[in-house]
Amino acid sequence: MLSVTDLQKTYPSGDEALKGVSIDVTGSETVAMIGPSGAGKSTFIRCVNRLTEPSGGSVELDGVEVTALSSDDLREARRDMGMIFQEYNLVERLTVMENVLSGRLGYVSTWQAFRRNFPPEDVERAYEVLDRVGLADHENNRADELSGGQRQRVGIARAILQRPKILLVDEPTSSLDPETSKAVMDLLTEIAAEDDIPVLINIHEVDLAQEYAERIVGLRDGELVFEGTPDDLDETA
Ligand code: ADP
Ligand code: ADP
């Protein structure tokens, strides 16, 4: 379970992106975070795994106080948090397989230094997740040869490689056309359900949030302004 309490972020610019936001994500539910551009959604996701340092508040994942960890321990804890990004964050010149295995390190940028050191069981696991996202035949393609939908499927494969305790997903469909967006959301929610992984997802398309999430939270100007089911949202609108 992910428990976020009173999360705050003020950027050096003085922008108060989060003014004390608390949410829990429990069991294997999918929680969608919606809100207009600039509401603080992306800051929230990035503060949960401390890609951005929060200014206050706490993040706890399965009893581990993420906000209190030293950087070494944080590296370890990030393996439990599968991240999926809007712009995929793939390394263009590396192959699909290499990109998936790069998640093994938590940091994409340091992967190349370690590329020869992967134990066979990791490689085997990578084949398994590539198969699940339908890219088993593309393991040797370079990332820059793939379509947007394929790239996001690599992103999903990388995120689930290490059997995370939660998936943190930041606008996964905003670079995709509507049809591909739905295919990606189908795949993502299907895998999360099969593996019992809770999902926290930022998404600005309200219809997708309503279709795929069990619970919706609304953010505006760094504050929580709505929390309810997809049906509750219809009644508020
Ligand atoms: P959303 O994801 O909902 O569009 P963001 O979290 O990206 O919102 O942004 C929330 C607020 O924080 C905005 O006012 C934005 O300009 C500001 N912000 C985001 N990232 C930074 C940054 N790196 N430095 C300064 N301000 C930022
Ligand atoms: P920055 O956030 O300033 O870009 P980082 O060293 O935190 O620098 O991250 C480098 C790159 O790797 C970024 O593009 C970031 O989004 C990505 N990244 C960091 N942590 C993870 C992770 N746990 N899983 C996947 N990608 C990550």
TrEMBL record:
UniProt key word Cell wall biogenesis/degradation: no
PROSITE patterns on file: ABC_TRANSPORTER_1 (PS00211), ABC_TRANSPORTER_2 (PS50893)
GO MF terms, alphabetically ordered: ATP binding
Keywords noted in UniProt: ATP-binding, Cell membrane, Membrane, Nucleotide-binding, Translocase, Transport
Gene3D superfamilies: P-loop containing nucleotide triphosphate hydrolases
CDD domains in alphabetical order: ABC_PhnC_transporter
Domain annotation ABC transporter: ranges: 2-237
Positions of transmembrane segments: none
SMART domains attached to this UniProt entry: AAA (SM00382)
PANTHER family: AMINO ACID IMPORT ATP-BINDING PROTEIN, PHOSPHONATES IMPORT ATP-BINDING PROTEIN PHNC
Protein name per the record: Phosphonate ABC transporter ATP-binding protein
